[in-house]
Amino acid sequence: MLRTIKPKNARSKRALQAREPKEVEDSRTAIFVKGTHTGEKVTAVMKELMALKRPNAISFSKKNPVRPFEDVSSLEFWAQKNDASLFIVGQSTKKRPDGMVFIRMYDNRALDMCEVGVDNWVSMNDFKTPKSTPGHKPLLHFASELFDTHPRFIQLKSMLMDFFNGEVIDSICLAGLEHVISISLAPTPKSLNSTTATDTLNASTPDALADASQLPKVHIRAYTVRLLASGTRTPRVELRPMGPSLDLSLRRNKEADPEMWKQAMKRPKLRKVDVEKGLGKRKKNLEVDEMGDLRGRIHVAKQDLDRLQTRKMKGLKAGRDVGEESDASEDEEHAPRKRRRGMSASA
């Protein structure tokens, strides 16, 4: 059990608040850990992935006796010390050669895991093409229906999106889109090549998920984007292979605990400052202007003037005719005026 740190001053309090859950999350930090025996292939692949993840990547150069599926205490300690939520552990054994384990953390605890095997790879240095700038957010492309139907590939898609995703942006500039990462699958077997609800339920059974060798391989390709003149306002887009090129096969996995998953998907309450900035769910009739001020629009129902409460005056009393009002006014005109007090008769 990790100890709870109580802030002693304002500086440490701000540091702890920066690690609290946010409505708009920061870019996730990934830690690359080498096992007791990694191998040249896995070491090179981890370097290539770290180059795509920079600057939000931390590399542990020393070998560590880490077995994620058996004990995650070391990973939880590193996650707390480095404020990291993603791990990639490289391990090569005789039973599972050239393996990598993707691990997601929540609240400094292991959420879920997915192990893959590196079948083939091509380095960035083998592609004599321009490379993307480190830190730029890529465009992810998933080309298979299994990423939306099969639970194993749904988990892998979610992990890869968290791994390659950077800072949350409001708009996309074509000039800032430098590279594209395409994730596709090998030809789907006949047992999985269906989008009907019956076949989806059959694929979710433990027997269908137990044999990972029948699942298609995952192909990851990275391309640089080149914008050319097309004679119109929209440019012509060309993709050039940038590398790396990876062929992965799914192995073991560990699903997230339902209660922990529910907590991880829960959105924090918005503060007043965040609401004024226009973050979170947009409320009806509320908007933020260019100066950052929160403005609201109020709708008032139609008023009934017949029931309007006014000052009680004799002239506004109901039931008096116009004729009576005119006679009363004439009598008041011909009536003698009253003498003022304090004045003599001779005056």
What labels describe this entry?
10 helices; alpha/beta; 9-stranded mixed sheet; two-stranded antiparallel sheet
Question: What would you say this structure looks like, in words?
Answer:
The chain is built from ten helices and eleven strands. The chain has a nine-stranded mixed beta sheet with strand order 2-1-3-4-5-9-8-7-6. Residues 195-210 have low confidence and may be disordered. It has a domain at 14-189 and 211-257: 3-Layer(aba) Sandwich (Rossmann fold). Helix content is 25%, strand content 25%. A hairpin with a 5-residue loop joins strand 10 and strand 11. The protein is an alpha/beta fold. The longest helix is centred in the first third of the chain and has 14 residues, at 40-53. It has helices at residues 10-18, 40-53, 73-82, 146-149, 151-164, 197-203, 206-210, 258-264, 272-276, 322-334, and strands at 30-34, 57-63, 86-91, 99-106, 109-122, 139-143, 179-185, 218-228, 236-254, 286-288, 294-296.
Give the topology:
Elements (H helix, E strand, L loop, with lengths): L9 H9 L11 E5 L5 H14 L3 E7 L9 H10 L3 E6 L7 E8 L2 E14 L16 E5 L2 H4 L1 H14 L14 E7 L11 H7 L2 H5 L7 E11 L7 E19 L3 H7 L7 H5 L9 E3 L5 E3 L25 H13 L13
Organism: Laetiporus sulphureus 93-53
Family: Belongs to the RPF2 family.
Subcellular location: Nucleus, Nucleolus
Q: Helices and strands: which structural class?
A: alpha/beta
Q: Which geometry do the CA atoms define?
A: elongated
Q: Could you give a short account of the major beta sheet?
A: 9 strands, mixed
Number of distinct beta strands: 11
CATH architecture of the domain at 14-189 and 211-257: 3-Layer(aba) Sandwich
- Distance between the amino and carboxyl termini: 107 Å
**Biggest sheet, strands in spatial order?**
2-1-3-4-5-9-8-7-6
- What do we call the CATH topology of the domain at 14-189 and 211-257? Rossmann fold
**Fraction in helix:** 25-40%
Name of the top-level CATH class of the domain at 14-189 and 211-257: Alpha Beta
What order do the helices and strands follow?
Answer: HEHEHEEEEHHEHHEEHHEEH
Organism: Laetiporus sulphureus 93-53
GO molecular function, one term: rRNA binding
Protein name: Ribosome production factor 2 homolog
Subcellular location: Nucleus, Nucleolus
